Amino acid sequence: MKNTYISIFLFLLIIGNTAKSQVSSWDTLSFQPLKAKADYDKNFNPVDFNPAILKSCVLDFVNYIRTTNPSGGKAGVVIVEQILDSAAVLQADYMAYTESKTLENKGMYSTTYRRVKVFGGTQFVDEVVSRTKASDAQKKYSYFDMVKSMLLPVLNNKKSSQIILDRRFSKVGIAFAFDENKRNIYFSIVLGNDRTLNPASTRRNDLTTKFTTKKYGLKSADKRKCKRCEAQRNLESWHEGLKVENGEIIFEYDNTRNFRRVVGRKKDGLAVDIVMREQYKCGDDNIVDNNRVNRGVMVKRVFAKKIIKKNLITEKKSKRLKISFGEIPSEVTGDYELNLIVIKEKSVCRSLQKIYIENSPVDYVEKLRFMSDTKSIACGDYIPVAENGLLEFIVPFQQSKADYKPEDIEPFIKALKEPKFDVDSLVITAYTSMEGSDKTNQTLQGQRAESIVKAINQRQKQKIKYKTITSDSWEMFKRDVKNSKYPEMANMSIDEVKSQLKGRVLKDLEPILAKHRFARIVMNITYDITGKNEQEFVVNKFNKAIASGDLKLAFSVQKYIVKACEEGRYSQKVVKDMIIPQDKKFVPFLVNYYYLDNFFLENVNDKMCEGINKLIKMDDKNDFALFDRSVCEVMNVDFKNEADIKSMQANVDKIYSLKQIPKTKVDALNMELQFKILEFADTSASPSIEILIESTYGKIQSIVNIDATSWLNAYKLATVFIKHGDYAYAEYLMAPFINMKDILPDFVFTYFTLWSYREELYLSNTFSDLAKRCHDIDKARFCTIMNKFSFQVLENLAVKKLYCTECK
Questions:
Q1: Are 628 and 370 in contact, with CB atoms under 8 Å apart?
Q2: Residues 6 or more apart from 245 whose CB is under 8 A from it?
Q3: CB atoms inside a 10 Å sphere around CB 11
Q4: Torsion (CA) 438, 442, 443, 446 in degrees, nearest 10
Q5: Is the pTM above the cut of 0.85?
Q6: d(CA 791, CA 803)
Q7: How far is Cα 23 from Cα 692, in angstroms, rounded to an integer?
Q8: In b/e form, how buried is each residue of 656-675, taking b as 16+ CB within 10 angstroms?
Q9: Which of 38, 83, 380, 693 has the most Cβ atoms closer than 10 angstroms to its Cβ?
Q10: For residue 400, what pLDDT is reported?
């Protein structure tokens, strides 16, 4: 499987050379800067030599190798650490005594870790050993010559060269010893970092929230078991799905199949490590035990079978995964961070932490989202104006009630479902039922009308012109009484009816009479389109145009709505408020509906895609709907093999032929597809996968149309990869330019953050060097960024010292 960080064909591709070439041999690498040092050019005599010069020469060689690695993926320098020196002495002496080059030893010294542990170190170590001749009688044999001959076999061995070049190491121990006859010299080089030290491992009881000491059968990372985990591109993005909801720790992931490619075997699983801020206090050692797989409180482990079984997403077609790790333990108090522990065969392969990466504010590839349809219906531009209108509603009267307040009237106005408006004038016609005297009824009518006017007036500042009219309900009574128990009353005179309306008759006819006590209110209004009121008015305008069949006006209004949403003037509520029938002639409007839904949610969900597929069935000629369907297909793709990839690529390539769709939009679609292909490639064991990867990177480069041979172009291309979560490749692109004098501070700060997202990077001396550089460029910006990082980057003790001194 490819090495994400050191990928030669990718480097050749980026610099525009697609021809295959062999990596430069370590044998031909120039070590001239080291040879030029006078001490190193001195003749080496095993009987009479300077140990300090020899050790210095080995250290300089190691650092030269790490910082000039011709394969890319340069590591930072290492500095000597006494614990590692002592462990190296044990092994060098053992090899000289047994006259064998070996990493093995006896008893309590049997492994590198055990040898380091004797001196208080931890499991975060590795070692390379070598042997070379101690002298050469035939020619001059300098310190330089001897160290070079010792290291070349190490470098030409894949396993040992990876150890020497491992970027997580910042500390080294170097030791050497001669065999009995001083014919050969044996070297041990032990590498570690700040986590190799364990000064506060016994201070667990000093913590308010104590870290977990039980291991639950979990073991440290095993390279063989963790191979699939390391190969997974963008594994860091899994941490984004880790959160706390109502005190419960939840993990969500959007692709169950892809998840199971990494966590799929019986003993694979996840756990959560709750790391406390108090463990990393300034002015004190970090209170952790680096020999454990966890840093803080480790909560329930969930293994592959139960993860799928306990999925809280129950929809059959859904690919999403959502599991609960239970509630935050009661002993957890104060500030904390959640780490997601990824387990392979009970080996803890990764502890994923909170991430912050700086990025260019400029998008070099357009963000992938649905497209709005602005062309399917020819129409003019719409501009909202404060329109006048005529509204009418009925207010029923309660018997004998004359005093009406705003809260009595408001429900009737809201029932109109109209946008906010001001009343210019109104006419109130007040009706009373037939019982009672005319004088009493007329007085009551007038009081009711005046009360309603007053109540409406209190809704606005502007005074309302009004007219009140009183009327009896004689004609309504004659109409309705025909269907009552007393139909003969329809033929009586008013006086006769009034004389009858008492006792049992009045009680029987009350349901009819109640309907005749009301006010009919007719208002001349002006819609209020000021500020946030405009949105409600315009959406209402749209719905009325749709309902009346005026599609040109409706399309014009909807285009305005889309623009207002894009400018941030309208809220997500427009999506819910637009009323659009499911019919072929409304497909352009529905395209825009789903566009706005996607715009506000900033992702694609199953409901949107189901809606888009329905639009295609209604009208398979709408370019915008076809594009949106392709977005759904790419975002939800789940490749099973390379044939699936070819089919999907062919479908996307066809979108370039759609006349209505700009190339920049299709490029964004194609770019997303390429990253989906890379995700598949990272978990595939196919022999042809390297060719597919090379082709994919070629497509990405052509889409962005940037030749990364300058720092600015490298930065632009790196920006694309950062936004897709491929931090490793972004760092790879920027690395060759980081020491140039004319690069912008933004480049340096972005590169600094790219060394913060995983332990193997932030523990390096490169990270501490970048921290110092950023501090010197802009202290305030440096401190701001440090506060956005996971506080676990303070495991780099040099960075912790700088941060605690300058930012606190």
A1: yes
A2: none
A3: 18
A4: 170
A5: no
A6: 11
A7: 21
A8: eebeebeeebbbbbbbbbbb
A9: 83
A10: 61
CA 806 to chain CA mean position, Å: 30
How far is Cα of residue 448 from the mean position of the Cα atoms in its chain?
Answer: 60
Instruction: Name, in order, each residue with C-beta under 8 angstroms of 469's C-beta and a sequence gap of 6 or more.
Output: 427, 428, 429, 430, 449
3-state secondary structure 360-381: CCCCCCCCCCCCCCCCCCCCCC
Task: Name the CA dihedral angle for 177, 181, 184, 187, rounded to a multiple of 10 degrees.
Answer: -10
Residue linked to tokens 């931090």: 727
pLDDT of residue 709: 78
Whole-angstrom CA distances from 180 to 43, 85, 174, 250, 733 are 21, 22, 20, 62, 50
pLDDT value at position 641? 87
pLDDT at 14: 38
Q: How far apart are the first and last CA of the chain?
A: 44
| CA separation for the pair 231, 680 (Å, rounded) | 10
| Tokens linked to 284 | 């004190």
Look up residue 126 and give its two tokens. 């590795």
Owner of token pair 């977990």: 212
Residue ranges of alpha helices (H) inside 167-266 are: 227-231, 256-262
Q: What is the pLDDT of residue 686?
A: 72
Per-residue confidence (pLDDT) for residue 18, from 0 to 100: 34
* Amino acid identity at 598: N
Degrees, nearest 5: CA angle 741-26-172: 70
- Report CA 255 to chain centroid distance, whole Å: 14
Count of beta carbons in the 10 Å neighbourhood of residue 332:
15
Q: How does pLDDT run across 23-73, given as a tens digit for each residue?
A: 445 878 888 899 899 999 999 999 999 999 999 999 999 999 998 887 666
- Neighbour tally for 606: CB within 10 Å: 14
Residue with tokens 């018997």: 399
Q: How far is it, in rounded angstroms, from Cα 569 to Cα 563?
A: 9
* 45-59 core/surface letters (b: 16 or more CB in 10 A; e: else): ebeebeeeebbbbbb
**Which residues pair with residue 521 across a beta bridge?**
393, 428
Paired with 207 in beta bridges are: none
Q: Helix %, strand %, coil % for the chain, to 5?
A: 50, 15, 40
List the structure tokens of 405: 């307040």
DSSP 43-87: BP-TTS--HHHHHHHHHHHHHHHHHS-TTS------EE-HHHHHH
* Helix/strand/coil for 202: coil
Neighbours of 690 (CB within 10 A): 14
Render 685-721 in DSSP notation, one character per residue.
--TTHHHHHHHHHHHHHHHHT--TTSHHHHHHHHHHH
70: CB partners within 8 A, 6+ apart: 23, 24, 29
Taking a C-beta distance cutoff of 8 angstroms, is the pair 87, 112 a contact? yes
Q: In what order do the strands lie in the sheet with 248-253?
A: 242-245, 248-253, 321-327
- How many CB atoms lie under 10 A from the CB of residue 734? 24
In the predicted model, residues of the chain with pLDDT beneath 70 are 1-25, 71-73, 400-402, 436-442, 445, 683, 685
| Cβ neighbours of 740 (radius 10 Å) | 10
Alpha-carbon Rg of the chain, whole angstroms? 39
C-alpha to C-alpha distance for 300 and 324, rounded to whole angstroms:
10
Distance of CA 457 to the CA centre of its chain: 51
Those residues with Cβ within 8 angstroms of residue 792's Cβ, 6 or more apart along the chain or in another chain: 275, 280, 295, 337, 339, 353, 759
Contact (CB, 8 A) for 84 and 192 = yes
Q: Round to whole Å and give the CA distance between 235 and 243.
A: 16
Token readout for 449 is: 């009308």
> Rounded to whole angstroms, how far apart are CA atoms 438 and 239?
79
CA distances from 754 to 312, 704, 719 (A): 34, 21, 11
Give all strands (DSSP E) within 464-528, no chain letters: 465-471, 518-527
